[in-house]
Amino acid sequence: MTNTSASRPASPVLGVRALNRATLARQLLLRRTGELSVADAVGHLVGLQAQNVKPPYYALAARLADFDPRELSTLLETRELVRIVTLRSTIHLHTAADALTLRPLVQDAREAELSGFRKGLVGVDPGELAEIARAAVEAEPRTMKQLREVLLVRWPDADPQSLAVAARCLLPLVQVTPRGLWRRSGQVALTTIGKWVGGDGSLDAASGVGSLDDTVLRYLAAFGPASVKDMQTWARLTRLRAVFERLRPRLRTFRDENGVELFDLPDAPRPDPDTPAPPRFLPEYDNLLLSHADRTRVIPAAYKGRTWKGNFSYCVFLLDGFLAGVWRLEEDPRSGKALLTIEPFGRALGRAQREELVREAEWMLTRVAETSSSYDIRFGSVMGDIGG
Predict the structure, then answer these.
(1) In contact, 83 and 96? CB cutoff 8 Å
(2) Residue of 211, 252, 245 whose CA lies nearest to 228
(3) DSSP letter string over 337-368?
(4) Which is deepest, 13, 57, 125, 261, by most CB within 10 Å?
(5) Chain centre distance of CA 103
(6) Checking DSSP bridges between strand 375-379 and strand 338-344, what pairing results, if any?
(7) pLDDT tens per residue, range 298-354
């Protein structure tokens, strides 16, 4: 019997800088693009992490040359973009079409989370819970507190938090506006995606082999070259090897310096490793940092884990394409001005690097920061000022 893998020619090796530049190009971080609308950019990136309200605005400001935060806000109001739990069981900003496609692909993983709440759900029928919760949120958007109160009427002895979590896992619930709007926002209130975007809201039609194949290809377009394990980390799905094997004839293969096989689209950009990479300020939880099993293409080994303190994630900045430090924007209590503090990791920055960072910071502040035209930028401590 022929050993297929052994008969394949050796795949080219991509070093860390080559992977870095390729990923930055796909992520629109090697240069800001003026060719994509906000909706097109969100679609290309297969969503933006949106656990908090502001990160999608900062994420797009780092990527789009003509970004106007009001455009993103308008798309949320018109329901062309939605905030919904999908990848890694976290809130993401997606196009409505992608929300309908991606949610069924991760639905089994969402339902598997219920095993961690089974003690609080003794005697609760999941199907009945889903129907009661659906009727409640489709009658009017509900906060998690209001949803708990509805479900407790039926199951008064169950754990209230477990009931609400079960509803979020079983149903495709979106956060309705004004949550997420530019300079307006509001508390989290939920309804089903079908109720919010129209149509029958059926997720079944969007699932299946075709959608999974397409999602793999789109992941590679936004995050490649990547391994099977990388995509499994991004989506928190398992058993994707068979999908990659099915798609292998349509893909190119490489290896990283550790010998791990990487897949990619044949015509996707893979810039020269020495291509200049400008500094960029990114929000907390940016998908650039969370979407690979091996994150050394962006995060130097010495800085692994440096951007977290407990459950708190810091905003970060890149220098030469790699994680180089953290930043914080706040109001200076003495002057009333916006104050952006930049804390580099490692050795002191040179004058040219500091000047580049300040120029990039000024661009960000004038475009998306919720400030007046008056601001200060300083280099100092960010991590030492939070949580002691």
Answers:
(1) no
(2) 245
(3) SEEEEEEE-SSPPPHHHHHHHHHHHHHHHHHT
(4) 57
(5) 14
(6) parallel
(7) 999 999 999 988 888 999 999 999 999 999 998 877 877 889 999 999 888 999 999
